[in-house]
Amino acid sequence: MKVDGKHIRPIWLNAEDDTIVNVIDQRALPHKFIVADLKTLNDVIHAIKEMVVRGAPLIGATGACGVYVIALNLGKDVMQDDLLQTECEALKNARPTAVNLSWAVDAVFKEVIRGSSASERVNIAREKALAITECEAENCKKIGENGFKLIEAIRKKKKGKAVNILTHCNAGWLACVEYGTATAPMYTAFDHHIDIHVWVDETRPLNQGARLTAWELGKQGIKHTVITDNAGGHLMQHGLVDLVIVGTDRTTYTGDVANKIGTYLKALAAKDNDIPFYVALPSSTFDWTMRDGVKEIPIEERDPDEVRYVQGLYNNRIASVLVPPEFSPAGNYAFDVTPARLVTGFITERGVCGASEAEILKLFPEKRAAFASSK
Ligand code: MRU
């Protein structure tokens, strides 16, 4: 996407030295623009764990590039499949909820072990990682085109009046290489001169909505308003939300959706107010092995200090302040699961479908074949 006239992505290979993976350090946005170098497996794991990079498709792309970094650092030892696998497993464990991470690492690993020399393995890792990154960008573009039709239909119904869309967390290009998942239909609608306005949930504790989504939308010139996480229900009751679009970190093939904590409450409020609740995702975010999202999807629990402290700009420096009493314990559940029954539909690169196993498998018939052959 373009920011201040310059095309940028959240991840790229360094132009002078392509053994270095560069990423935008998203912890510092929107106040500082910092680029981090990832040169070792530990750098990549740290970047994913500490949320230098975050968002399911970007975590996947970073994992894919991580296998390239592993291959480079192993040198001749990259020919030892066991060692390569152990390091890939460590990478896959950096964050548990977004299925894109293990999907991307496995996809690169599978190709790499076909290489018959160390240099061939490094080249394969590089090419496959770049291909995954491009593919995620392309998929998000298609999600934008498919989701745009939903926004256009609402605009027609409202006779050209502004379409109000609510979103949670950041499922924008920062989370996805390009366009975003939840934001892609918004960017496409904006490019088609449709009047849209976005309610941006601030998304405590790390405020990905207030910091990242608001920054992204502002840089593209899209009207938006940051709201507290608890405001959505009130806005829905008063007719101020036409549509909810969120992203996801893992969606079961039956349609249960894991996404940033608080998504479930938005889905409940949307259901109560008869407001369409859509989830935008590329196929890499479907988990084709899990049936019951609430029981099976691993929910990350993060450092309670992320809840206890709030970060922001103070005297031109990023500072943290303590909110609760010093000794009050805090709990930091990073994701929740919205059951399929509360989801109106999915916006994917292949089209829009309902939130049920049958509807999802209509869009991905090759997965039906895989289930059948595994029985
Ligand atoms: O903890 P984060 O910031 O990685 O969580 C991100 C989200 O929950 C996004 O909504 C999700 O990854 C969808 S990404 C397009």
Descriptors:
375 residues, Four Helix Bundle (Hemerythrin (Met), subunit A), Rossmann fold, 7-stranded mixed sheet, 13 helices, 19% strand
3D architecture notes:
With 375 residues, the protein is an alpha/beta fold. The chain has helices at residues 41-49, 56-74, 81-92, 99-112, 118-157, 184-191, 208-220, 232-237, 263-272, 293-296, 305-308, 357-363, 365-374; strands at 2-3, 6-7, 11-13, 21-24, 35-38, 163-167, 196-201, 223-227, 243-246, 250-252, 257-260, 277-280, 286-287, 309-314, 317-322, 335-338, 345-348, 351-353. It has 2 domains: 2-135, translation initiation factor eif-2b, domain 1 (Four Helix Bundle (Hemerythrin (Met), subunit A), Up-down Bundle), CATH 1.20.120; 142-374, 3-Layer(aba) Sandwich (Rossmann fold). 42% of the residues lie in helices and 19% in strands. The strands form 5 sheets. The protein has a 7-stranded mixed β-sheet with strand order 8-7-6-9-12-17-18, with helices on both faces. A hairpin with a 2-residue loop joins strand 17 (345-348) and strand 18 (351-353). The radius of gyration is 20 Å and the shape is globular. The model has no long low-confidence stretch (mean pLDDT 97). The protein binds 5-S-methyl-1-O-phosphono-5-thio-D-ribulose. 5-S-methyl-1-O-phosphono-5-thio-D-ribulose binds at residues 54-57, 98, 169, 171, 175-176, 181, 208, 247-249, 259-260, 334.
